[in-house]
């Protein structure tokens, strides 16, 4: 609900602060007094385009601030939460326009683009006029009104979920098919690469083993010569060797041990050294006996290592990881080999998900057609009440899901109307009379307000082109609508103004060559005087005052 609005230096308004109440508020005033200025200012806080001409002459900037209470507006609360702009149970919109034409928008003190104010504004308040802000003419708003009246939100959510899943899978399939030619070329390359590596048949640790064996065979001569020299030093040296020296030293220590027990452990240590020296010599000798110096084996290893190195360079990897590269290429090739199968499986999934979408879209369409019949009857009756005795209203629901599927299903919804006998039903946007359009819009809002979460509503001169009994009915409908939601109505008709739960008066004042617009609430007696002015024009009599009071009492 709109709680208040503060306007500074906007158009001919110097400063204006207004508080609004629940129910229906009638706004009246003389022609040209600026009754629509507050609505224009409010429109700026709802994301309308700003213009430098909106700034009051002589001022640097205009500023408009509005406050809304959100206790009964869960849609706006969810929007604020989703956009991380929530600040308690209230919402403050602010717009600043400089004389240069620059503007800044704020939601709960946070700077935001005007587009975000516009998105939130549609959840807070609807402005109905003859020319601007007529959401009723938009096809997307028409289907939203029908869905809100039908109350099948669970079906809409299910439709949106299924549609998004289908679109996502369809895009995956499209991307896979698009890549098919590239995949086939890649598959041919992989087949060639894997064929080469299959021919090599490299084992997992084979390269390391080959490298060690090649190194051993390449240096077998040096290994044999050096090993034999070590054996000679340890045991086989004719003049002296380590084993002989250790044996002689041990004998001397044994002799000393007979004289002093201190030498016994030392003799045992030399015995252990002598044994280890002998075992080392024997192990080297056995190695020499088994040493293979086969030149043919060395030639084979040279060739295999050269092949491994060549393929490693070809694949830009180290020889040590050529085996794992081979296994990776095999895996990629197997994956590509199943591409056609993957396309078939994905196509089947797309078909199944599309069928699910069509099923939900059909259920949604049936529900819309059912509730459209209810609305057709109710809105047509309301048109008859509003001096459109021959009027007829029909909501056309056409299921085009096979070719025009969307998150809302597949229905094309159009509001059709006929206002004169013999006139065919035609889209609401083609209705010639602005007054008729306003009354039809009013009828729809009154009917749907009981079932939908309707934001605050502003009707800007919905009474244009009507008078007498029709004006009284319009007033009654607006008051009825005000019982469930906040309604503000700019009007020239006393029959409409008298139905308001409260009334505001707009006046234009001139002081020292400067014009200012003011708006203020009227008490009971002031309302009678204003209604009398609307009834009798410039000449107010006791009779017009009595008639004015009768209007208030009747309301």
Characterization of this structure:
With 555 residues, the chain is an alpha/beta fold. The chain has helices spanning 37-45, 74-82, 114-124, 139-150, 153-178, 180-200, 206-218, 220-236, 242-259, 264-290, 295-314, 322-337, 339-385, 434-448, 468-482, 494-497, 524-536, 542-554, and strands at residues 2-10, 13-19, 24-29, 61-69, 90-98, 103-107, 110-112, 125-128, 392-399, 411-418, 426-427, 456-460, 487-490, 502-511, 514-521. The strands form three sheets. A six-stranded antiparallel β-sheet has the order 2-1-4-5-6-7, covered by helices on one side. The protein has a six-stranded mixed β-sheet with strand order 8-12-13-3-14-15. A hairpin with a 7-residue loop joins strand 10 and strand 11 (426-427). Helix 5 (153-178) runs antiparallel to helix 13 (339-385). It is elongated and about 155 Å long. The two termini are 23 Å apart. The mean pLDDT is 85.
The assigned structural class equals alpha/beta
Give the amount of beta strand, in percent: 15-25%
Secondary structure tally, helices: 18
In spatial order, strands of the major sheet run: 2-1-4-5-6-7
Rounded mean pLDDT score = 85
Write the layout of secondary structure elements.
Elements (H helix, E strand, L loop, with lengths): L1 E9 L2 E7 L4 E6 L7 H9 L15 E9 L4 H9 L7 E9 L4 E5 L2 E3 L1 H11 E4 L10 H12 L2 H26 L1 H21 L5 H13 L1 H17 L5 H18 L4 H27 L4 H20 L7 H16 L1 H47 L6 E8 L11 E8 L7 E2 L6 H15 L7 E5 L7 H15 L4 E4 L3 H4 L4 E10 L2 E8 L2 H13 L5 H13 L1
Parallel strand pairs: 3-13, 3-14, 8-12, 12-13
Antiparallel strand pairs: 1-2, 1-4, 4-5, 5-6, 6-7, 9-10, 10-11, 14-15
Helix pairs in contact: 4-13, 5-13, 6-12, 7-11, 8-10, 9-10, 13-14, 14-15, 17-18
């Amino acid at each position: 609900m709109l709680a208040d609005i503060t306007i500074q230096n906007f158009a001919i308004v110097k400063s204006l602060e207004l508080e609004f109440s629940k129910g229906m508020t009638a706004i009246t005033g003389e022609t040209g007094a600026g009754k629509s200025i507050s609505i224009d200012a409010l429109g700026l806080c709802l994301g309308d385009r700003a213009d430098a001409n909106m700034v009051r002459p002589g001022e640097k900037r205009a500023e408009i601030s509005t406050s809304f209470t959100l206790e009964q507006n869960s849609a706006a609360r969810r929007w604020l939460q989703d956009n991380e702009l929530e600040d308690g149970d209230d919402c403050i919109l602010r717009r600043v326009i400089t004389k240069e034409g620059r503007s800044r928008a704020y939601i709960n003190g946070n700077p935001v683009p005007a587009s975000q104010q516009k998105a939130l504004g549609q959840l807070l308040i609807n402005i109905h006029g003859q020319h601007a802000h007529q959401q009723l003419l938009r096809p997307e708003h028409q289907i939203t009104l029908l869905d809100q009246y039908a109350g099948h939100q669970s079906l809409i959510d299910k439709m949106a979920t299924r549609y998004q899943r289908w679109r996502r899978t369809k895009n995956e399939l499209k991307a896979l098919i698009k890549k098919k030619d590239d995949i086939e070329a890649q598959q041919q390359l992989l087949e060639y690469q894997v064929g080469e590596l299959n021919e090599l048949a490299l084992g997992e640790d084979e390269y390391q083993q080959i490298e060690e064996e090649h190194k051993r065979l390449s240096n077998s001569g040096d290994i044999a010569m050096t090993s034999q020299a070590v054996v000679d030093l340890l045991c086989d040296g004719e003049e002296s060797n380590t084993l002989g020296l250790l044996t002689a030293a041990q004998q001397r220590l044994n002799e000393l041990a007979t004289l002093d027990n201190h030498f016994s452990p030392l003799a045992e240590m030399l015995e252990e050294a002598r044994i280890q020296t002998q075992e080392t010599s024997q192990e080297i000798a056995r190695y020499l006996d088994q040493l293979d110096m086969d030149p043919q084996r060395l030639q084979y290893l040279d060739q295999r290592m050269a092949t491994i190195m060549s393929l490693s360079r070809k694949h830009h990897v180290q020889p040590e990881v050529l085996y794992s590269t081979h296994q990776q290429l095999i895996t990629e090739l197997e994956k590509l080999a199943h591409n056609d199968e993957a396309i078939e499986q994905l196509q089947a999934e797309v078909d199944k998900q599309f069928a699910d979408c069509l099923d939900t879209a059909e259920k949604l369409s049936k529900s819309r057609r059912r509730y459209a019949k209810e609305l057709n009857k109710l809105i047509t009756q309301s048109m008859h009440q509003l001096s459109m005795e021959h009027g007829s209203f029909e909501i056309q629901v056409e299921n085009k899901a096979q070719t025009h599927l969307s998150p809302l299903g597949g229905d094309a919804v159009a509001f059709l109307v006929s206002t004169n006998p013999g006139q065919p039903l035609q889209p609401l946007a083609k209705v010639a009379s602005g007054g008729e359009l306003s009354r039809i819009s009013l009828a729809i809002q009154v009917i749907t307000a009981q079932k939908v979460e309707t934001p605050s509503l502003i009707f800007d001169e919905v009474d244009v082109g009507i008078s007498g009994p029709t004006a009284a009915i319009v007033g009654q409908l607006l008051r009825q609508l005000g019982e469930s939601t906040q309604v503000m109505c700019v009007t020239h008709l006393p029959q409409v103004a008298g139905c308001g739960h409260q009334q505001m008066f707009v006046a234009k004042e001139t002081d020292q060559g400067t014009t200012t617009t003011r708006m203020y609430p009227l008490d009971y007696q002031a309302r009678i005087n204003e209604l009398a002015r609307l009834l009798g024009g410039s000449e107010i009599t006791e009779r017009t005052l009595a008639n004015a009071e009768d209007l208030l009492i009747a309301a």
